[in-house]
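Proteins fold reproducibly. Take a sample protein:
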Amino acid sequence: MAATAASLALLDRTPLPSPATLGNSDRLSQEIFSILESNFLFGASPMEAPYSSSAGRVRVLSIDGGADGGLLAAAALARLERKLQDLSGNPEARVADFFDLAAGSGAGGFLAAALFARRMPADEARDVVVKNRKVLSGHRGGGMLFRRSPESVFRKVFGELTVRDSTKPLLIPCYDMATAAPFVFSRADAVEADAFDFPLWQVCAAACGVGPAEVASLDGRTRLRAAAPGSGGGGASAAVANPTAVAVTHVLHNKREFPFAAGAGDLVVLSLGGSAAASPAASLLRPSSSSLLRIAGACQADMVDQAVSMAFGENRGRNYIRIQGNGIAGGETTAEAALAERGVESVLFRGRMLMEKTNGERLDGVAEQLVREHHRRLESKTPVVLVKPSATPRTSSSSASTLITVSTNSSSSESP
């Protein structure tokens, strides 16, 4: 109630354009809900925090989990990296060089960790995803690349790396069965204490719902129970299918690492979704636990997409780019076909609207933005991001919100 009252008070103090000036009531409704949504989620109105061109924009990469096992996201990242190499003139350039933070759920968590902690080429990461789609989408059947067990996929890729080893801020949401609550694995927390640093292979396996029954921090003080194996798969990523809101909130409330990010206008967010799956109506004809989880995950991803799009307001066309299958053709869609499809945009109260450009063309536009920002920073003396180099006594925003949800040694034995 307090948050709602504060939002309404802000609306009373904010002069709104008249419907005649805006042209129609749809535009007026969008302005009103953009103010309310942004103030409720982020604590500030986009009108109160204009973009500061001298500071630069924080570049955020968000990658969904989903039923396609990360196929579209992996293909999009491979195309993006090739375009970045071409525009920058550096054949060794990597996706991680052009982003300040990565967030990923499910298969997206694997991709984010592979690119930011392993510095794996995007083409190589795509090959791993293609060969192990079932594992990355939450099924325990052996992958084509590693046949012994699902965990071996992640062990082979990450070895002894931990969350702290990521070169830049990394966020991977998971679901803790012991507390029935989400938990965010965060590099910002990992560099502060071993109690929040976890082996990356366990983190990614847990995010996909195929990991060991218990995930423990390096010092053993923090323990989580991953989604139970054999429960249909996908439950872990369905809880937080679209991590964009997690990433944006982390940036806007982490002034130590992102001191100049005051509002949505100070961010450039690339959000990668999945290929369109079979229609929900078809899935409900023969309902199963896995089909219901897929529907729940897709619904959560779309709701986050629309909420974040509203929060960006007039900046969403340039500062918030969402890539996903349009779902018009129905049935299974290959990743390459989804990149050739026209993009879709969330419209207030009206679902999705087809855009003029294809997903691939929009990715090329993002690459141009990222390269321009990269060159601008090379000429600027003001750092946009200050990545934590070592442990500090201060807890970050993500740990402050999740400390109450973790299972400890003393309490895990009492959990059902």
Observations:
- The chain has a mean pLDDT of 76.
- The chain has 19 helices and eleven strands.
